[in-house]
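Task: encode each sequence below as structure tokens.

Item 1
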Amino acid sequence: MKAETAGEGTRSPLARGLGKEEEGMVDRSIWKEHVIPWFISLFIIAILAGYAIPKFLRFQSRPVQVYLGEIYDAQKEYFLKHHTYASGENCFALLGWHPYIGRFHSFYCDTDKILCNRCKEECVTTNLSAVSARGFTIMASGNVDNDPGCDVWTMNDAKVIEHVVDDVAR
């Protein structure tokens, strides 16, 4: 008899409760004390994840706005020195701008482009960037959530940033 009692003490409460089923009764308090709170916790974590993941993906797009601001400042500085905006296939070289290592976005200035490190191909088919003697529009595109679509941002010479294609919201 002592061996049974000692053996039962080493079993988990859930196993002990289910073991009583053999005797014809199940200890339902085990479910109330252990399983139901676990399901409630899991449900709360799922709700928090559903809220936090889209916010995190939006946070990932913040560096793009900073980069576009840097390109904007470089274009304005270039304009002060040369009375025209940098353009052409070497636009970024003329501006002396290059994104930091580990970027997840591609950048476009007129016909010049810098593709992201992890991009196998461009995720946009239309280059919305343009440069003229009176103004410019620069563009960035990226895929922060690894799906087929990508986000597209533009900034013009009035420093108006526009999220043209919002892939995270879809």
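Item 2
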Amino acid sequence: MKRNVVVYLILSALLAATALGAPSSAQEQRIVVGVLLDVDGSVRSGDAVIAEAVRLAARDVAADLERIGRRLEVLFEDTDADPRVAAQAAQELADRGARFIVGPTSSPEARAVLPVLERTGVVAISMASTAVELALDDNLMRFVSNDAVQVRALSHLYAENGIDVVVPFVRADEYGLDLLAALRSHVASPVHLVDEVVYEPGAIRDRLGDLEARVSDAVRSYGARRVAVQYVGFDELVEVAAELAAMPALSSVRWFGADALAVSPRFVASKEAAAFGEAVDLIATIPVPRFDHLRARQIIQELLGAGFDSAPLAYALNAYDAMAVAALAESARSAAASPKEAALVVLKWFSGVTGKVTLDENGDRADNDYYFVRVARPFGEDSEATWTLTGHWAADMVFMED
């Protein structure tokens, strides 16, 4: 049944493409889509499940494209989560004939590939980049809402937990500084954001003393129960978890994380990090599309069966739909039509495992809710730590689990 649905969607794409002109004979034979990820998750652990979801989508779409005489070729390039490598890899994919790229994951990488997209006309579809500064009318589409939405969820989370003072601990890159700016523009009284502590990528340990001092000052004024640290960075927090646990102020207050940390497999696999997350009742936010649960179930089961039980499945499902849209748009595109025009035609009717993909005027997803997740051991103290759902934010309302 699923394959029949995909065939119907492909045929619909080709019919819709008549407004763009008939595809060329060369395109009828070979459909090329590039992928930019930290493919093996060696640097950013969550990318491994995203890569697997892309493979599943390519498998499903390729089988049905073959029925109408098209051959899908997927070109993977490993970025090692490095923006410079991502830019070079994007150019390489363009040179090899890819007019659509699935990825990259992070906002720093997305920022780095923008000049390549502008120069070549290639469209990149990111499943996880959220920086507000990238909300531009360009060839970057993002199947996730930007951080202007995330900060609304975070501000409601602070209020729900009785927090008066938030100390931001922020990675000094496009992602961290952009989310910090969005927080400062949105969070208002009675919650107060004090001056942030910013760390350079690769040097998180260097600022722990400053963070301890900043939090200590806040605790003396407001009490530990009213103070929280808002961490905005990736899972390099694992590297300093044991040190954080030994610091009196930092281990006595609540911690909140954002989407780059939420459901990190590396974090819960670390004994020290998981223990610290439990001790400070760490809660992180992750954007969640309004799934088509019936259609998503099979893909989720395959990902879980492959061992990704602690992985960011929301981003993985975004990636599945990104690959489907990229392949359908390239299949339907004529030589005279731009990749962006073809993608916008497909998105008028496309509904995938994440439901209807509605983009705003800047090409960002317009309809994400947010889940709140925390580190827990649901099967007892001796069981493995995992990320568990603890609440849900939608339409400026917070719903917490009992």
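Check on item 2: DSSP finds 14 helices and 16 strands in the chain. The chain has a mean pLDDT of 89.
End of task.
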